[in-house]
Amino acid sequence: MKMSKLGYFSEFLLFPLLVLFATLLAFRSSVSPSPAIWAVIYGAGLVGWTLIEYLLHRVLFHHAPVLSQIHERHHHFPLDLIGTPAWVSMLVGVIAVAIPLWAALGFGLATAATGGLVTGYLWYVFVHYATHHWRPRKNSYLYRARLRHARHHHLSNGGNFGVTTGVWDHVFGTALEGRTSKV
Ligand SMILES: [Zn+2]
Ligand SMILES: [Zn+2]
Known about the structure:
Blueprint: H1 5-9, H2 11-28, H3 35-63, H4 67-76, H5 86-105, H6 107-133, H7 141-154, H8 167-171
The structure holds zinc ion (2 copies).
């Protein structure tokens, strides 16, 4: 879905506030989690996101009905702000992520895992935006992300599915090497 800049970035305000609020509730409750375990689970959520990002892009964005058509538009018009409205990603996040994690880990640790996943997701939205709209300094992290993602757009859409990291492309053998003319 094509969006305004405000709509595109509203998640960056809304989601951290929700996670922060839930986390404060968790730590103020009588069964508050241990901060060290909370931090470990948060980190696991963050790392877990990078794998989810890879699979979402490789499997759903390129093969699922509707989603693949929306994503194809992004491939044709990479500068358009095509994203998910905040209320849709929030609904998906609560129903498919936060509630199952709550059931599995309890409220306190679910805020950690959800927080890690949300941080990873926002990092992905930011990096993806930057790869198309910014010209980062040579050899910086964003420069490498831009180069990696440009290969996905211009060399082959059968590889380089990772946006924030190329690790999973190396693990699953979909890394694209070589030069691209349009960076
Ligand atoms: Zn892109
Ligand atoms: Zn793609």
